Amino acid sequence: MRRVLLKSMAALAVSTAFGVAPALAANPVEVSLYYPVAVGGPVTKTIDGMVAEFEKQNPDIKIKAVYAGTYQESIVKALTAYKSGTPPTIAVLLSTDLFTLIDENAIVPIDGLASTPDDKKWIGGFYKSFMENSQTGGKTWGIPFQRSTIVMFWNKNLFKEAGLNPDKAPANWAETVSYAKKLTKADANGNVTQWGVKIPSTGFTYWIFQGMTTPNDTILMNSAGTQTYFDKPGAVEALQYWVDLSAKHKVMPSGVIEWGTTPKDFLEQKAAMVWTTTGNLTNLRANATFPFGVAMLPANKHPGSPTGGGNFYVFNKTSPEQQKAAMKFIRWATEPQRAAQWSIATGYVATRPDAWETPEMKKYLQEVPAAGVARDQLQYSVAELSTHDNQRVTKALNDNLQAALSGTKTPEAALKDAQREATRILRSWQR
Fold first, then answer.
1. Distance between CA atoms of 358 and 366, rounded to whole angstroms?
2. Which end of the chain has a smaller Cβ tally under 10 Å, C or N?
3. Predicted confidence band of residue 402 (pLDDT cuts 50, 70, 90)
4. Residue range 210-232: average pLDDT?
5. SS3 of 188, please?
């Protein structure tokens, strides 16, 4: 698929407004791009291909891709480089890093670099739900690129074996429990050999939790990033449901379920249903030995998922020439055809409605209808949890969520403790 992507990019280059590449520039502007590699799906070669094609079309710009590890490692490396006076020009970092990057004065507003009417039209062309984690205070700080929602994958063969309709995922919380009970199997000694459902609780615990609070009509923070609402009744009810899947219904392993191994467990048919990022779609399509389906997360009061994933950010302390080159690359990488190609190659959601109207994406959707599930879920999506001092706030929530899931705190006590700590951390921002 990556070979097809690069061929289509090369063909696209002929017909785009960039035209035929001019002669090689003597002193190209050097732009560094920090990119997180520890994400769902094989993306490094795709990024390399995009960079090579961009440089071919723009020989006056040299892009140096730096693969910086996980999202968490990437922001640490990017901020360390910024503070040492050698910042990256562009970085793909979590959309939730927005307030942290602003507070460090590490990034520049996109509006200041893209101010023409055409630029404003481009900025206005992204899905509004993705822009919730990209704009604040009347400014645009990030451009959606590697974005996702949480979806449910289910094994159609195991559904059929359990007497369930293989083409129908559970639509709500009650059906999830009912289906999962039929899908959980144990050996003669009582050891579970196949779990009905696995919902990861490491890595992005708060994000997965939002996959339950969102359909329960509960928002966890305000848009200014200064207040959280972790102990709302809807949040407590959502966490109780999550805990009950293992503690009460016995359809999910107790304790911690690793984010990174959940797709592997699904591929090895150790779990009939899993929750993970849409970014794993291409990975699962390439490696699954069985037919599977993709569905929106089960509803309670209504469907819903938080958005997730990474934005492009342009760093401060870089030259005007570098920033101009950075914007050219970001515009190029998010044009409709390229956004479609990126989505097809990786499984991430094409971030603009016009990308879904391209011939490439229409053809792909005919072949892989499941790719449209994440797009359809965007109408119910909310912003991923993001606040000032975000890493400390999310750690407070993650630690308490895991305490509830491991049985050391009740859901109510865990969320009260998380809210108390978040309030303390954010006190200085409430002015």
1. 13
2. C
3. very high
4. 97
5. coil
Q: Return the residue matching tokens 């979806």.
A: 151
How many structural domains are present in the chain?
1
Sign of CA dihedral 186, 192, 193, 197: positive
Chain centroid offset of residue 422 CA = 23
336: its two tokens:
């409709």
Q: Tell me, what CATH number does 81's domain have?
A: 3.40.190.10
As to burial, measured by CB atoms within 10 angstroms (0-12 exposed, 13-18 middle, 19+ buried), residue 319 is exposed
Structural domain range at position 104: 2-148+308-380
Contact 63, 28 (CB under 8 A): no
Instruction: Round to whole Å and give the CA distance between 166 and 162.
Output: 9
Side chain identity at 335, as an amino acid letter? Answer: E
126 and 136 Cβ atoms separated by less than 8 Å: no
Predicted confidence (pLDDT) at residue 3 exceeds the cutoff of 80: no
* Bridge partners, residue 192, by sequence: 186
Band the pLDDT of 42: cuts 50, 70, 90: low
168 inside domain:
no
